[in-house]
């Protein structure tokens, strides 16, 4: 499984994915800082990102995981403005699987951006990386996040009880999965953006 060092996906005429790079530290921090209350509801790392330097250190770890073939992460650009992140995480070469994680700024929600980005990333994972299985986990209370795998034809596998500690509360996570043979990107209908 070969993962290139820098990649970019053009999703449509306004949305693109840019592989996470040091140059994204400041705009990524700005997006996080503007959306702290929104993001911290379901993401445990938000309070640890207190400066662009904190984000830069995180980006370094992302690049190391990318070089090791264990992760492939991107910033989401909409009309040339950074509005979130998405990535393939916990890539297993042995078991040919990975997990998709994503977040979006509050103002960018409701436009089908994450669904379109997931569609592109899933197709890449199955066709280019030779993966067999992709999972998405979403907090039981996070209905927006759940709608993405539901729209894309994922199967609901079950609930991981008390699986993630966020803001001193254990959250239950719904696990969704899709297998390579179930994925037919040409048959996935996306909502209009």
From TrEMBL:
Its EC number is 2.3.1.-. Transmembrane segments: none annotated. Gene3D superfamilies: 3.40.630.30. Residues 27-172 form the N-acetyltransferase domain. InterPro entries: Acyl_CoA_acyltransferase (IPR016181), GNAT_dom (IPR000182), Ribosomal_N-acetyltransferase (IPR051908). GO terms for molecular function: protein N-terminal-serine acetyltransferase activity; protein-N-terminal-alanine acetyltransferase activity. Pfam families: Acetyltransf_3. Keywords: Acyltransferase, Transferase. GO terms for cellular component: cytoplasm. It comes from the Bacteria. SUPFAM superfamilies: Acyl-CoA N-acyltransferases (Nat) (SSF55729). It is an enzyme of class 2 (transferase). This is GNAT family N-acetyltransferase. It comes from Haoranjiania flava.
């Amino acid at each position: 499984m070969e993962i290139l060092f820098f990649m970019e996906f053009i999703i449509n005429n306004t949305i693109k994915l840019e592989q996470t790079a040091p140059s994204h530290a400041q705009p990524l921090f700005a997006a996080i800082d503007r959306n702290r209350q929104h993001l911290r509801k379901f993401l445990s790392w938000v309070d640890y990102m207190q400066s662009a330097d904190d984000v830069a250190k995180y980006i370094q770890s992302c690049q190391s995981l990318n070089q090791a073939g264990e992760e492939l992460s991107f910033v989401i650009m909409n009309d040339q403005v950074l509005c979130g992140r998405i990535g393939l995480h916990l890539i297993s070469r042995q078991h040919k699987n990975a997990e998709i994680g994503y977040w979006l700024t509050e103002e960018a929600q409701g436009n089908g951006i994450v669904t379109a980005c997931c569609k592109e990333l899933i197709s890449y994972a199955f066709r280019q990386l030779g993966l067999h299985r992709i999972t998405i986990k979403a907090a039981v209370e996070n209905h927006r996040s759940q709608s993405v795998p539901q729209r894309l034809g994922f199967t609901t596998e079950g609930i991981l009880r008390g699986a993630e500690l966020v803001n001193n509360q254990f959250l239950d996570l719904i696990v969704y999965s899709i297998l390579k043979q179930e994925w037919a990107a040409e048959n996935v209908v996306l909502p209009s953006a």
